Request: fold
Amino acid sequence: MSYSQISLDKFKDTFSTDIELSSVALGGQVISVSDEFFAEAFHLLLVEPAPSLKGQFGPKGALFSGWESRRHNPAFDWCIVKLGTTGSINGFDIDTSHFNGNEAPQASVEILYSPEGELAPQVDDPRWEEVLPKVGLGPSSRHLFTVPPSKGVNYVKLNMYPDGGIARFRVYGLVAPIFPSDTSAVFDLAHVFSGGRVVYTSDQHFGVGSNLILPGRGKDMGDGWETKRSRAKCHKDWAIIKLGDAGYLSQVEIDTAHFMGNFPESCELHALHSTDLVPSDVPEDSWTPILPRTKLGPHRRHFFQLENVQGAAFTHVKITIHPDGGVKRVRVHGRRADPISAAGDAQAAHPARATEADGGSGAASAQGAPPTLSPDRSARGPLIPAVPLTPEAFAPFGKVVQAYADVHAVPDPRNTRVTGANQGTATKFHKLALLEASYPAESGATAGLSIYRCKPIDVTADGEWEVKLLERHPCTNQAFVPMGGAAGLGDALEEPGTRYLVIVAHNGADDKPDPRTLRAFVASGGQGIVYDTGVWHHPMAVLDKTMDFTCVETQIGNGDRLDCEVVDLDGSAGYCTVKVPS
Reply:
């Protein structure tokens, strides 16, 4: 059995673009163990390096962050680990940090693949194959080994001879990609389970770049990507993600969960099609800008529609943050450019896993399965995704008015005032939007409150809705705030809707809506919106059920063009169509 032991200074060159398949962050778990009398085996798979617990004792003796068995084993101890996902293995890090005098003197590793749904393999399963023969280990040190790439496996067995302690066990390799069986489906092409890999980071002082594509939203700032503070003017940091397969991109989610005082001021995205694993020598102007520099907020999932992606397939996405800070996850949604990948796989392994709507732990969007693009739209107008409404994405068009569960997660936290109110029974978020009006003094316009009772729009069975007109208010901004319901009170809605569409566009050179800037958002019943003065928008478009809204605006009220201008859009080549998530 061939293998190589490499020095610690070669770690980055050897494993930096691989995936830690055994990590608890991917769902790796200890299935069974021969003995864990002194320290439990689950420690082996923890993300963080093993800390020193020197001088601390429990009822069984000195404490260690690792796996430690009893003394005097006449044979060997073993631990069976189920990997977070099926993959091809090419190396190991067997770490004995802080075990000195009680470290395992030797270790070996075996592997096997067992189909999902079958019982976990036992220690004597005849399918076990040795991939790393018995190797020597030393005290309190990391031992790095490379092996020839294995077949796809999902279980490993770590053997230690005869007994002792190991702090961490990391299994490196490449994921067997998990793609939807529907080749036209939109899913997260950057997700680790889709075969995504972070292949370069400019800086990862506090948190490694590979965290960006992990499942879920993590538990704290330690499992995101975080760079050190910069002091240079115009500084920026970046990370490059190789997608699991070439794809046509549509939208992105950038999550700053747990980063509240250290989130980036802004970010931008670029994309590239390249056959290189790490496109390091590519001129800057070869990267296509797909998201202009956009402000980010603290502790929030941001959703953005991408630009310049129509008809172009990309293999890499670069996220650039300004000037520095932390990002938890990046989700790049799109569909595969070809159902047969470059590796030649006609179908993905375990396709069902890619459609889990589980808060980000699978490759699908946590908002439910992302929209599926129609395979042939040649005779129709552009299709744009309706993404969840966030203050940062909506900022070019207006303001989002809502409460925040964490007062440190408000937009622009340095300038947004939050105080207690009502003798301590309320939290007040001050002036999230200001009222504006620029009517001529002689117009007689006045500010007031109106109520709109809006019936739901007719969305097609596959979640599409054509945009045929837009309007704007040249002299005032306009706010819409959802109202609740109440059973048995007559005029109030007993079961009001809980979401609505917000469709906006910038003004074009011809003083009409610029269709290239059309954006669609899904707002919740807990979010109000304020359209900036002069912003083109669609009249209120409620989803699912009737909703009531309070409208705050200034108007003359006689149908004057100063109040409202309505434009019918040109549908000769097909209307722009919004794709509404289920």
About this structure: The chain is about 0% helix and 40% strand.
